[in-house]
Design brief:
Layout lengths: L9 E2 L5 E3 L5 H9 L10 E3 L4 E5 L5 E6 L5 E5 L5 E4 L5 E4 L8 E8 L5 E7 L4 E7 L5 E7 L9 E3 L5 E5 L6 E5 L5 E3 L9 E5 L5 E5 L9 E5 L6 E4 L6 E7 L5 E7 L3 E7 L5 E8 L5 E6 L5 E5 L4 E5 L5 E5 L9 E3 L19 E4 L3 E5 L2 E2 L9 E3 L1 E6 L9 E3 L1 E5 L6 E5 L1 H4 L17 E3 L3 H4 L10 E8 L13 E5 L4 E5 L17 E6 L3 E13 L1 E5 L2 E5 L2 E6 L15 E4 L5 E9 L3 E6 H8 L1 E3 L19 H12 L1 H5 L4 E9 L2 E8 L4 H5 L4 E2 L2 E7 L4 E3 L1
Parallel strand pairs: 33-41, 44-55, 52-54
Antiparallel strand pairs: 1-32, 2-3, 4-31, 5-6, 6-7, 7-8, 9-10, 10-11, 11-12, 13-14, 14-15, 15-16, 17-18, 18-19, 19-20, 21-22, 22-23, 23-24, 25-26, 26-27, 27-28, 29-30, 30-31, 34-35, 34-38, 36-37, 36-50, 37-40, 38-39, 39-40, 42-43, 42-47, 43-46, 43-51, 44-45, 46-49, 47-48, 48-49, 48-55, 51-52, ...
């Protein structure tokens, strides 16, 4: 729990720290066990800028769209075919052209059947074609369009399950549909020959633009009901050129427009055809093109001439920054999972950033936010929370870790955090002082609000329902509490990570883990200690000891897994997103402590949200079996428990492992020659490693 007022920013992406799989349990454990004594050989990429660039390997990307497999898919102008880029930036291609003559692709969208649908021109067939491309790589062409048709760029999934697309020709542009079985229908010619942009509005109609006006008539925004009968809404000036169009979070359509006289603007049009606002982006024409809705509820757009990505809220507040790379950004899409369903196999592979196509690169923009902010209801997990009242004069905040449900009544939902977060109210701010069924839980916490608002419904997310009392006289098992909540107040999605797996997991040595917390956002680490005993940590209310805990260290020496304010975060297996622990304390050297999640569930009578009765007795099948040697080491640890606890200055001990086998890690508040002399070098032949915590552990 943080008692300072420094708000750290974190990234709304799948990983703030992008990690690669650890090759070999022994190597990873050796690296983690030696973290204070030698450099670590594991590698990590810290994304500390909002924009990352990924090469398309000479492919010229056009439109980009979310896939159902947790990746982005893009059309290419050259012969490379349909491209795929995963959330780690790995690019691959599926050829779709009928011969070496190649094809030019433009529009792309995911259909109701989960496949990608692509528009373009096949040079061998000499036909404008729509391709169906499955995420497994199967390609079906539908070359049913004569060369007089000129599909410009756009295709979208309609509310009727069909794909809808634009085509243009001098005698009048048309809007067409193709069913998932390949049946094509074209509308009557429209009162224009060129179309750009295509979106489904909140009214169920298609919206597009007659993108370029003339000296005689202005450009138009066009509403096209699926039953036919287009409506035309002219631009305010004759020289307006429209770019993209998208449905906004407010029920209106948002579009980009450019004009030599009026510069570049973002406009808003209601579904009755009223242009209510035009927000100036630049007084000169910067060629605004693509626009999309981001996971933060804002509209995001690109400037083709300047290489800039911009963000505009529905209130008209605009922010911009340079993308870099080879400039000429063209198309923009929110990351996979946001606003789009992914198949069960890929759930959890969520990215909440923006993806932008450029000449030969794809840019990824990480949405910079802070989990300390107030989130619209229902709030995600991994964000700031506290009870009220706090202080006075203190204010504080911890983390809403994850959603859980009652074992006996699964419809009852709770927010899980620490007891020292949710059960600590003023004036002492000590655990066990909250009133069950009465004390409110607020989001964000009072530290991040800046004051204690009391029982203000604007901040309410739940009521403290139960907590495990914390004591300074005997060892504690868990530091955990729950607040009753509802689906309208909170979500089971964890900010920046996604949906946790509703299974009961057990941490194991070398396990890669992740968490999303109030202070450091999404971080990656590895489990370096299990069966931790005698763990002592301090806060302003006293010294608390814990038994049977687990220890985590950041995946690299330069990245901390947690900081004060992250208390209450759920710690999850990085591969399966199965919760394995509840973060509650740490040290100044980067060590993090967590309660085993199964112990937390048992103490509070809960299960992960969405769990089945079988999960009440099941264990995550990915957990490795306990070996006989580990059981022998834990027996040795138990036999020497009193001996170790009697040594002054010890902050606890854990079972760990190095490349040569199991070992004990003994944590001391300050490592000095005097403190280490009292610690044996081994216990019944099992090596003992002394770890300096630089002052011991404190509640986070």
């Amino acid at each position: 729990m943080s008692h300072d007022d420094q708000h750290r920013k974190s990234m709304l992406s799948l990983r703030q720290i992008e990690t690669r799989p650890v090759s070999g349990l022994a190597a990873s454990l050796l690296c983690m066990a030696a973290f204070l004594f030698a450099s670590c050989s594991l590698s990590a990429q810290v994304i500390n800028q909002p924009v990352a660039l990924f090469s398309t390997n000479s492919g010229y990307p056009a439109r980009i769209a979310q896939g159902t497999d947790g990746a982005l898919w893009f059309a290419t102008f050259n012969e490379f075919g349909v491209g795929r880029i995963d959330i780690n930036g790995i690019v691959s291609y599926i050829p779709v052209c009928s011969s070496e003559l190649g094809c030019t692709l433009f529009g792309i969208a995911t259909g109701s059947d989960g496949a990608l649908w692509v528009t373009g021109y096949d040079y061998m067939a000499m036909s404008f074609t729509i391709w169906k491309v499955t995420t497994e790589g199967d390609v079906t062409p539908y070359p049913q369009f004569p060369s007089t048709y000129i599909p410009l760029n756009d295709i979208v999934a309609g509310p009727d399950g069909a794909m809808w697309f634009t085509s243009s020709q001098p005698s009048g542009a048309q809007i067409g549909s193709i069913t998932t079985s390949g049946d094509v229908t074209l509308s009557s010619p429209l009162n224009t020959d060129l179309l750009r942009g295509l979106a489904v509005g909140g009214d169920g109609a298609l919206w597009t633009t007659n993108w370029e006006g003339s000296t005689q008539s202005p450009a138009e925004i066009i509403r096209f009901p699926l039953s036919g009968g287009a409506q035309y809404f002219p631009a305010p000036t004759l020289d307006t050129v429209y770019g993209g169009i998208v449905a906004g979070p407010d029920g209106a359509l948002w579009f980009t427009e450019n004009s030599p006289e009026n510069g570049s603007q973002i406009g808003r049009i209601t579904t009755d055809g009223t242009i209510t606002d035009e927000f100036l982006v630049s007084s000169v024409d910067v060629a605004l093109t693509g626009i999309t809705l981001g996971s933060d509820g804002a509209l995001w757009f690109v400037e083709q001439d300047t290489g800039v990505v911009g963000r505009i809220t529905t209130a008209g507040s605009i922010l911009e920054w340079s993308i870099g790379g080879d400039i000429y950004p063209f198309s923009i899409s929110a990351g996979p999972c946001y606003g789009h369903s992914v198949t069960e196999e890929f759930q959890g592979l969520c990215d909440y950033g923006l993806w932008i196509t450029q000449q030969t690169t794809i840019a990824h923009v990480t949405l910079v936010t802070t989990p300390a902010q107030r989130f619209p209801r229902p709030v995600p997990m991994g964000v700031s929370i506290s009870p009220t009242p706090t202080g006075p004069p203190n204010t504080f905040a911890g983390t809403a870790g994850m959603r859980v449900q009652s074992k006996s009544m699964p419809s009852q939902k709770f927010i899980l955090s620490n007891s020292h977060v949710l059960s600590a109210i003023g004036p002492t701010d000590c655990p066990n002082t909250a009133h069950k069924g009465i004390t409110w839980a607020l989001q964000p916490g009072t530290l991040d609000i800046g004051f204690d608002p009391g029982n203000d419904p604007h901040y309410y997310v739940g009521t403290v329902a139960n907590y495990v009392p914390q004591t300074t006289t005997t060892p504690n098992r868990v530091d955990a509490a729950i607040a009753s909540t509802t689906d309208s107040l909170s979500s089971s999605t964890i900010l920046g990570i996604g949906q946790p797996t509703p299974e009961i997991g057990t941490a194991y040595l070398g396990e890669p883990v992740t968490k999303s917390g109030r202070s450091t956002g999404v971080t990656a680490g590895v489990v370096i200690g299990i069966n931790c005993q005698g763990i002592a940590h301090d806060n302003s209310c006293g010294t608390y000891k814990y038994q049977g805990e687990e220890a985590v260290f950041g995946i690299s020496p330069w990245s901390r897994f947690s900081q004060p304010g992250d208390s209450g975060s759920a710690v999850l297996d990085s591969d399966t997103l199965t919760p394995v622990g509840l973060l509650y304390a740490g040290s100044g050297t980067g060590l993090t402590l967590m309660n085993p999640i199964a112990s937390v569930y048992d103490a509070l009578g809960v299960l992960p949200d969405g769990a089945t009765p079988w999960d009440a007795i099941g264990i995550n099948s990915r957990n490795p079996e306990v070996d006989d040697e580990l059981l022998r080491v834990e027996d040795i640890q138990a036999r020497h428990e009193d001996e170790l606890f009697a040594i002054p200055g010890l902050a606890g001990n854990c079972v760990s492992r190095s490349a040569s086998g199991y070992e004990f890690q003994v944590y001391v508040t300050d490592k000095t020659p005097k403190s280490t002399r009292a610690i044996p070098s081994d216990l019944e032949g099992v090596p003992v490693r002394v770890i300096d915590t630089h002052g011991g552990f404190t509640s986070f």
